[in-house]
Request: fold
Amino acid sequence: MQRILAFLLVLFAAFYSSGCASTTRLAEAEEKTFSPPAQSTPAKPVIAATQAKPVEKPLVETSPLVAPPAPKAVETPRSDSLKTSIALLLPLNSASFGPAAEAVRQGAIAAASMRTPAVLPLQVYPTNDRPEDIVSAYRQALQAGAKIVIGPLTRNAVSALARSELITVPTLALNYPEGEISLPENLYLFGLTAEGEARSAARRAFDDGRRTALTVAANTPLAKRMQQAFADAWLEMGGKLAGQAVIPTDQTRYPALRDKVARHPADMIFLAADANLAQMVRPYLDANTPTYATSMVFGGNREIGRNVDLNGVIFSEMPWLLVPDHPAVMVYPRAENFTIEQQRLYALGIDAFRLASVLAQNPQPAEGTVLDGVTGQISLAAHQFTREMTLAQFQEGVAVAVEFVDSNRTGESR
Reply:
């Protein structure tokens, strides 16, 4: 009897020990499965599917100080095919630059959706507007396998990136660095600059045979920079300056401006002002003197009556806004309800992605390469992609393209 009892005790102990061991292993497995990692995983970038239908309506308010919502690009699962990509760095999380960045983002996605098959998928990296964070996002894009990078968008961020010694892949900055700075070998510049358009207006007027210029500028830092850029280019070509006038902030003083213009006769006027101010001040200028301006003077053709006072003014504008039936323009979807400024940035996004695709196929393109872009005829010189835009003139209250550079013409940096 004692032997039987001892045997039963041994059998029960063995069974209990086996059950406890199984329970312990299950608990350890569950803990291993559900316990948090030792360190946090960095947030994945938004990946824009290259064949996704572009958003037709803007995702942000038109006010320049309203922060945009989170990007709504279509997510694509990360796979081996996405180890190399085109990275798009934009300050989408910035209250100041978010709306502009959103317009560029939508343009790039629109262009990516038209590339079938795609050269490389597009990955969007939302950033804020702090240069150090943008440089960090650039580093993250490289670590994720970016073959080409588009961005940054702001001048201070471009400057910071140019000095970072991180640029090891072709990078297309969407602005220009501040001051004089040596450009890294893989850094290319492409953007919309008012100063560049002012210099282009000077060359256009000089080519038209004008030799004496009077400049009239709004009392703003941007307009004064345009005025100075025009003057520098004009004098460099051998032109003469009859005078430089500033538009009074008080409209009751416009007659005094008219008197000043009359005292400084010239064979052309350069007007540095936005559309609203240009419409108000033009009647006080000499209508018989040819007047040149930049795209800032164009606020759209929807309100024809407002442009009547600008009749005769010559300016340049991107084909996207003036030649909608051109083959390079009509293939891309329009962004509805965008302002003129947002439309220009949307077009910038389209051409930026197209240039990035060119760099993906040829990381060191030859100078003079031309892209028939929606922002203009694009050529490369000294690591800068320059644009030759459509020449236009206001006629009967409507901006009309009076010249369009043929798409087969060999590009030149003018």
Summary: Residues 77 and 385 are 33 Å apart (CA to CA).
